[in-house]
Design goal:
The protein is mostly helical. It is built from six helices and no strands. The N and C termini lie far apart (48 Å). The longest helix has 24 residues.
């Protein structure tokens, strides 16, 4: 089920992990301050994504891209750029590093689609004798 942390989490991904953690903590604060328990669902999802991203899980990569992209679109559409600029900034602090670290979640094993002479078993063209 994907790879677990190999001890080499990319530096850029740490930016996303910290930003997502701060977003989760802000959601907990808002949930307590406003008495809105539904906000805790978002905080729980963010916490699960933090762990999944740290461990390099493919499902976390995909869900993070989906949730953050939808969050950016909805926030921008409903609140506009001015009032929600801090929220949009945090969402971009998650989205961009996750995209940059795609190879951490989907490492290449070999050159997919590239056949070498050793793979094919030939040492030259048809005219070699």
């Amino acid at each position: 089920m994907g790879h677990t942390n190999r001890g080499n989490v990319p530096g850029a991904l740490w930016v996303a992990i910290v930003a997502l953690s701060v977003m989760a903590l802000m959601q907990v604060y808002v949930g307590i301050a406003r008495g809105a328990p539904v906000v805790f669902v978002g905080a729980a999802i963010d916490a699960v994504l933090v762990v999944g991203l740290y461990l390099g899980q493919k499902w976390a990569y995909i869900l993070a891209l989906v949730f953050i992209t939808l969050g950016v679109v909805v926030t921008w559409a409903m609140k506009g750029l001015g009032p929600a600029s801090a929220q949009l900034a945090f969402q971009c602090l998650v989205l961009v590093p996750v995209l940059v670290c795609t190879r951490y979640f989907f490492p290449s094993t070999t050159g997919i689609g590239v056949a070498t002479e050793e793979d094919v078993g030939t040492s030259g063209g048809e005219g070699d004798q």
